Structure formats: C-alpha cells, structure tokens
# Entry
Amino acid sequence: MTLSHIDGLVEDARARDLTFQMDEDLFRAFYERTSRGLAGYLVRLCGDRQQAADLLQETYYRFLRSEAAFEGDAHRRNYLYRIATNLVRDQRRRPMPPQVPLDEPGAQELAGDTRSAERLAQRHDLDAAMSTLRPRDRAMLWLAYAHGSTHDEIAGVVGVKTASVKLMLFRARQRLAERLRSRHGAQEGSR
Amino acid sequence: MTAAECARESDILDAIAAGEWPHAAPEALKAHAAACAVCADLALAASALHDDAAVVSQAPLALPSAGQVWWRAELRARHEAVQLAQRPVLAVQVVAAVVVLAALVTGVRSLAPDAWAWLARTAVVARTGSLATMDPWMVALILSVGLWLVLAPIACFMVFRADRQGGR
# Structure
C-alpha cells in the first residue's frame, strides 16, 4: 500500500463521514431560530458565559452529526436542548460564581435609570439564586418559565418521566422562590 | 410529597407571559398571589425567569454566526474522518514495528555466542587503528552496513517524496 492509496482512503472516508443532519442553508435558518434561546439556556445552566459559548458550538456540532430522524421543528429543537442538557451534565467543572460583567449584554442598557438598576439587581439575585440549585432544577425551571416548554417536552430534554415533571418542577420552584426571598430579605435588612 | 396545586396558577402564568405581572395584573389576582403560598412561589420564580429570558432575547448577544459554526463543524468532521481513516494504517505500523523488533531479538540471540569474540576483535581494531588484524569478510560487512545506513534514508526520502507528489 503506497501513500497515494492511503491518501485515497482518507479522501473516501472524508466524503463518507462529512454527512450532516441538514445542509448549510437549512442549518443557517435553524441556527437563527434557536441559537439565542439556547445560549441563554446554557448560560443559566453553566453560570459561566465562556463555558456556555464552548458548549453552544459543541451542541450544534453533535446535533449536525446526529443520525436521528425528526418529525418537525419542535422535535428538532427539543433534541438540541437535550444535547445541551447532557453536555452540561457531563461537565465536571464546578460552575463559577455568578458574575455580570459590564460588557454583558443588557448590563449597560439596564444601568441607566432607577427602574433599570432595579432590574439589573434582580438579574444579580436570579444569578445567585440559580447558582445554588442543582443543574437539573435549573434546566427544568428555565425550560418551563423562560422557554415555555410543556411537561412532555421538559421530560424529553431532561430525561425523566413526564409524570415526575410536575412534582420536580414544584420543588425546584419552591427552592428558587425561597432563595430569591432570602436574598431580598438580606438586601432589605442591609438598607 | 405531592405537588400542591392551585386553580389560579394558569392565570398567573398568563399574566407573566403577557408582561402584565405585577403592575398591570388584576388586583384580585395579585391579592390571591399574596395569600396563596403556591401562587406566591410561582409568581416570584416564573416572573424572574421570564424577565431574564426577555433581557437575553432582546440584548445583542455576542454569538458566533451560523457560518462560523458550520465552518468549524466541517473542519472538525474532516479532522475526525482523517483520524478514523488513519487508524488501520497506524495499526499496521505498530504490527510491523513489533515484527522487526522480534526479528532483531531472535537474530541477536542466535549470534550471541560469536558476539563476544567479534567485539574483542573490534576492540583490537579500535586500539591499533589497523584493519589488518580483522577478517577480510568482516571488513567488507562493516563497510556494507555503513554504506547501507547512509544510503537507505536518502533512498527512502526520494521514494516517499515522489509518492507524495504523485498522490496530489
């Protein structure tokens, strides 16, 4: 076997393995529809923007390489969120403490008046409260109340039974409300 | 533990989704949420998450473009394909290396009885600087091996270079 033969085999393998879930035009449209929401989801789950950016790329790559057959756009989107959820779960690094740097999207716009400052403070509180929850609780809460997913969709993304979602969501919601109240209480007390 | 429910949860969620919570929400609903523990938790958690999602969706996030993501995915897929295709070649190389090593070990073991005598004669040659004390066939052998060690890498280089150019 000469090097030319080896190069030929490599080219064959490239052609065979470069099959993606969809072509570039379809992907661009799908990305435009889903990337913003997915980025927000990943930031909330990881608590780290850099890690979320890395996971965003990885999520779309795995999606493109998947061989699953989809029934529609909603199914496709749920599958994308499931990949993202599994990737976050696989991350062994501890989430960084919540931070809202000055260049974070929305921070400058929010820093203008009293109402905006209040909203910025609320985001800080949410960051801090969410970072104390388990990743699965964070995922469920975000999917339910920020993304508007149904219990069935949440079950598919998080990998639990649909019947369990209601109770798990109820508990996660209680925990989040408790943390938010304790932060509000601490702030009121310090004034 | 079971999930406590309230019939007005959906009203609160609708108000949050419509952006009416809490300022533009009906007073009766706000009063209910203040009194009902389930709805109070729901209103607090869901409105915080809903507001946060709204900020994220409106803000100019620094996301990579679809083209960049596609391009990186293609590069990575190519890289993985090349690695996959080269795996059998690597396996063949490892097997070849093991076979050569085994042949060398076998050869050295079979020649071991003569090796000490040969080394002793070589030491004499090195000390005196004269090939006269050495067997003529041994001199020829050493010269051949030396020549082969010089020419073989050059020959390999020429063959592989020609092959590479031909393959492109």
Q: What stands out?
A: Residues 66-128 of chain B form the longest helix (63 residues).
